[in-house]
């Protein structure tokens, strides 16, 4: 029997290829990028809830709230900013997640429908390089935790070791050991990541709760912590900081708003993946925010200064047992978040660029190497750089990619994709011009330019000029994520308008019956 590219549509709306072997001859195909068969889409609501619990409960998430406290907000202002940011970013995240569950495809393959089979590499690599930066940041703070843990156990000989490149050589050793441990897990594949997430998810809160308990005892309870006043007030001082801070909070998960199909492709249904994310992201991030706020505010009460890094705060504890137990919990949390949020996606992204040469595992190793080369210790050296430079800048760029995907999937194609054509060259509907859709590229460039072209920093507080890279659009940088998303969305639809009719060409599908196992040929329909 000859291989067929026919796609089957199940009663719940999920779609799969009748015969995946029909794609094996494509140079844009490998096993990791292939549509997941419906019988292997087994992730439940709990799997997605656990995924978000593991990804949200980590030190960089903690640094969001502690950073806002450090720049002058009180607990109400910081909590409001973070919670609102997570509710906003959940919208494009769920919109892009739909394609993963419906078609069983990862983000780089999804992007081919709008950027072109080759052009999708641009979108994938943009997201992949940002993930490499995050991998480096998470690995650095994990290495810091190992450094402090061993310092408590070994003594001053460890923490007072001779400096190499500005840090004790033992710090670099902890960093590299933490890096190697994560690489070992990712080498075992995506199922190993899922299993690790499942068993660590209920445990990752332990370290933060120990930190909180100690701070509450030392600070004298909740009263002194929640009575800390805002240094910004509720007037112009706060509102001038609120918008760029909100964009930074949104941008924190802007990467996942693109690549959630990497995970939702394994979902049992749209309802299960959506509920898992709705229950997982806002709740866990709000919990993380309030814990971080109380710990950081408590640190102000105890030490008279805002210590925004929990590892440095824990290092001041008088009890070695508390330090070790707390930081082991934080280290587990960081591994859990790093693998899911910052290794899985770029592994697919690099594999998408060279499907026949780079596997999921090799892509993970590439991520690890770039994560070191990006020098993450500089990105979290200051809350102003972390929030207003790193988060806001990359958030605006990735928002432009999200704008193209949302416009293309929900408005242009109305959620209908031809699976086989996502791997086809020349004759496929997603080949466009030489494998590139120039309209998507232009829309992304315009959205990104509007979003970050005016990037600026306060004097001495960041890498950008005070008046902005392009002074005329400096004001837009305070709203970088919204500007990037909206700009690319509008420009893409405007450029694709002459081709809308072609996007609505029916896609033949065979409908299946779960009761009888029979199938019949019918036109494509929108069904979940």
From TrEMBL:
The keyword Nucleotide-binding does not apply. GO terms for cellular component: plasma membrane. It is a multi-pass membrane protein. Residues 507-528 are annotated as: Disordered. This is Nitrate reductase. The chain crosses the membrane at residues 49-69, 75-95, 124-149, 169-187, 199-217, 237-258, 279-302, 322-341, 362-380, 386-411, 436-459, 479-497. Belongs to the purine-cytosine permease (2.A.39) family. Pfam families: Transp_cyt_pur (PF02133). It is found in: Membrane. It comes from the Bacteria. Keywords: Membrane, Transmembrane, Transmembrane helix. One of its GO terms (molecular function) is nucleobase transmembrane transporter activity.
């Amino acid at each position: 029997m000859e291989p067929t590219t026919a796609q089957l549509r199940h009663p719940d709306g999920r779609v799969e290829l009748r015969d995946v072997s029909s794609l094996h001859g494509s140079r844009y195909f490998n096993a990791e990028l292939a549509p997941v068969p419906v019988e292997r889409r087994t992730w439940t609501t709990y799997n997605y809830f656990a995924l978000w619990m593991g990804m949200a409960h980590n030190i960089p998430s903690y640094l969001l709230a502690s950073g806002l406290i450090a720049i002058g907000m009180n607990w109400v202002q910081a909590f409001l900013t973070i919670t609102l940011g997570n509710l906003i970013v959940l919208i494009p995240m769920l919109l892009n997640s739909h394609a993963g569950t419906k078609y069983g495809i990862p983000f780089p393959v999804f992007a081919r429908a709008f950027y072109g089979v080759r052009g999708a590499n641009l979108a994938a690599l943009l997201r992949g390089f940002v993930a490499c930066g995050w991998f480096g940041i998470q690995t650095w703070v994990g290495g810091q935790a190992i450094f402090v843990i061993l310092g408590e156990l070994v003594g001053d000989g460890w923490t007072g070791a001779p400096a190499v490149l500005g840090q004790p050589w033992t710090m670099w050793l902890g960093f590299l050991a933490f890096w190697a441990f994560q690489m070992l897990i990712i080498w075992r594949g995506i199922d190993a990541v899922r299993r690790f997430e499942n068993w660590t998810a209920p445990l990752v809160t332990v370290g933060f709760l120990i930190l909180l308990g100690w701070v509450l005892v030392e600070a004298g309870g909740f009263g002194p912590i929640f009575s800390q006043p805002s240094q910004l007030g509720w007037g112009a001082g706060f509102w001038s900081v609120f918008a760029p801070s909100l964009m930074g909070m949104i941008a924190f998960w802007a990467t996942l708003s693109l690549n959630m199909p990497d995970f939702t492709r394994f979902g049992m249904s749209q309802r299960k993946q959506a509920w898992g994310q709705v229950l997982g992201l806002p709740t866990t991030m709000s919990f993380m925010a309030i814990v971080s706020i109380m710990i950081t505010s408590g640190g102000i009460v105890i030490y008279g200064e805002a210590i925004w890094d929990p590892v440095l705060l824990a290092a001041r504890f008088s009890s070695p047992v508390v330090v070790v137990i707390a930081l082991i919990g934080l280290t587990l949390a960081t591994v859990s978040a790093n693998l899911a949020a910052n290794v899985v996606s770029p592994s697919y992204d690099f594999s998408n660029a060279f499907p026949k040469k780079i596997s999921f595992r090799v892509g993970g190793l590439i991520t690890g190497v770039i994560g070191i080369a990006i020098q993450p210790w500089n990105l979290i050296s200051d809350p102003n750089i972390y929030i207003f430079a790193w988060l806001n800048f990359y958030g605006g760029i990735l928002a432009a990619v999200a704008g193209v995907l949302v416009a293309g999937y929900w408005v242009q194609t109305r959620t209908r994709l031809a699976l086989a054509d996502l791997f086809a060259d020349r004759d496929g509907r997603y080949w466009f011009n030489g494998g590139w859709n120039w309209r998507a590229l232009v829309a992304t460039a315009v959205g990104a330019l509007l979003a970050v072209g005016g990037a600026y920093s306060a004097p001495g507080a960041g890498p950008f000029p005070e008046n902005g890279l392009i002074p005329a659009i400096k004001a837009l940088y305070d709203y970088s994520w919204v500007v990037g998303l909206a700009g690319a969305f509008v420009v893409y639809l405007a450029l694709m308008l002459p081709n809308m009719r072609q996007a609505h060409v029916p896609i033949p599908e065979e409908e299946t019956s779960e009761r009888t196992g029979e199938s019949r040929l019918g036109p494509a329909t929108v069904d979940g």
